[in-house]
Amino acid sequence: MQHRDPLDGTLDGAVGHALEAVLFDLDDTLVDHRGASERGLRAWLAGLGLADDPVTLEQHVERWLTVEARHYERYQRREITHLEHRRHRIRDFLPGWDLADDRLADETFAGFLACYQAAWRAFDDAADAITAAREAGLRVGILTNGEQAVQENKVRRTGLDRLGVPVLASSELPAAKPDRRAYHSACDALGVEPARCAMVGDSLRHDADGARRAGLVGVLLDRRGSQRSAAVPRVTSLRQLTWRGRGAA
Which of 40, 51, 113, 122 fits a 20 to 30 Å CA distance from 32? Predict the structure, then answer.
């Protein structure tokens, strides 16, 4: 694989041996999760009458993303279930609402969920990146923190399922990223040694650096050009990942 990164050097120099496989993160790497969250949230809040002015709306968006991150981390640490994390999110986001009843909390969250799912989109470089890797003879998988059924549905509804790439979600693995067991389990599923597998994702902690610490080749996808890392190669688009073919790094 080749890429040019004026900040962090080249992957060629960092690998030094042949790659046989690549794992792609899903949310905000292949699929625009943040964009879908923002678009879905705006539509949902408008339906609730909570989007009266632009400033308040943006405050709601930032608060939603903060609440999501807090409780999703708890879910990934397996302190709470996936369903419980949704209930915590909606109750924290709407503290003035009477959502003590689980059924009512679930119904309220479902309103957001429908808007969020309707806004799912794959990035325009996602399918091409997977296709290019497979055409180069590499084994390809999607390694994602999340619930297996939810993430498979996301892959299906964004059309990425047509590529036939396995989805390896943390709910079915011994642990979530950045625990090394997540990467190693994914490598086992692809039948490849960790040192011969690259992990490409938007999170330095969960994808690039976590993978590097687990013995894989970590590659940071920095679409906004806002992250810096001297420890891992960095690209700003999946189109910057070019594969020279099986047996080449």
Answer: 51
Phi and psi torsions of 206, nearest 5°: -85, -25
Positive or negative torsion for Cα 207, 209, 215, 216: positive
Helices 102-118 and 33-48 cross at an angle (nearest 10°) of: 120
The CA distance from 78 to 75, in Å, is 5
| Radius of gyration from C-alpha coordinates of the chain | 19
Cβ count near 208 (within 10 Å)? 30
CA gap 57, 20 in Å, rounded: 46
Alpha helices in 49-179 (DSSP H): 54-76, 82-93, 102-118, 126-135, 148-157
Strand order in the sheet with 197-201: 167-169, 139-144, 21-24, 197-201, 217-221, 234-235
How do the pLDDT tens digits run along the chain, 249 residues long? 544 443 333 344 444 458 999 999 999 999 999 999 999 999 999 998 887 788 888 899 899 999 999 999 999 999 999 999 999 999 999 999 999 999 999 999 999 999 999 999 999 999 999 999 999 999 999 999 999 999 999 999 999 999 999 999 999 999 999 999 999 999 999 999 999 999 999 999 999 999 999 999 999 999 988 887 667 999 999 999 987 655 433
DSSP state of 123: -
- Give dist(CA 221, CA 125) in Å, integer: 12
Q: What is the DSSP string of 155-218?
A: HHHTTGGGG-PPEEEGGGSSS-TTSHHHHHHHHHHHT--GGGEEEEES-IIIIIHHHHHTTSEE
